[in-house]
Amino acid sequence: MFLSLLLGLFASRAGYFSQKHSQYQMTKKLIRFDWAMKKLLRHKANFGILEGFLSELLRFDVTIESILESEGNKQDEYDKYNRVDILVKSQSNELLLVEIQNDSQIDYFQRMLFGVSKLITEYIKEGEPYGTIKKIYSINIVYFGLGQGKDYVYEYKGEFVGLHENDILLPTSLQKQGFKVEKVSDIFPKYYILKVNNFNNIAKDTLDEWVYFLKNSEVKDTFKAKGLDKAKEKLRYERLTDEEKKMYDRFQENRRIENSVRYTARQEQAAEIAKRMIVAGSKDDFIAQMTDLTLEQIAQLRRGED
Prior knowledge:
By secondary structure, this protein is of the alpha/beta class. It has 10 helices and 6 strands, in the order αααβββαββαβααααα. A 6-stranded mixed sheet has the order 1-2-3-4-6-5, sandwiched between helices. β3, α4 and β4 form a beta-alpha-beta unit. The longest helix is centred in the last third of the chain and has 38 residues.
């Protein structure tokens, strides 16, 4: 039991600092991208912001034809904005599913697969040949640790490899011509994951500038990435209507409350671990290192104070 509590504390330490940072977001001039995506970016006048982000990530120019219905379109008063998605149809008739997830979800990879599979079944008409299915892009922006890896942008490039010959399965000439593909993997969804909290806040290119904005809700004057100029102009808090300001303020307040609840739970867990380490005879410096509690807090626990 003691070991499981200790491991649980270790797993939460990295997330604590990134969550604590979100408490100060109201001091930024720009509103958060996830809230803007749910409330503002569905309007045609603001398409340029999302087009800019998608163009930088996918490395080709994206022009939005329309915003389609998706699960994240729901307007629920009790929705705490932990997840939001938007479904984009480009002028080249491709579907781009952009999803932002704030809370940790252990089966999120499976969720990505389900989202794309559901999308395929919803947007192919009954009786149509499967060849009418268009390319789908799944873009996932997560504010929690997902999988293991040090990078902050991952691109899925799956291939079909022969079990015995180790060769790459290629499409036939007819398939290449009919489906406009060069590889079998071109037929299948392409996934992107942006692990925002891994970013070190040093923008080395235009995609990094977008990741910086996603993490900090701020656009520096030196940034040149497509769409960020529009974001800097249109996503200012003072541009919101009075009703939108109220909704955004509630959104931020909900985030602060949730962060406070998580922090309190971690502190209680740390205190429980510290008590067990005290009983085991551990020294205060070691307990502080393992639990992030202060020496004063540990002293209070030794005295039997809450």
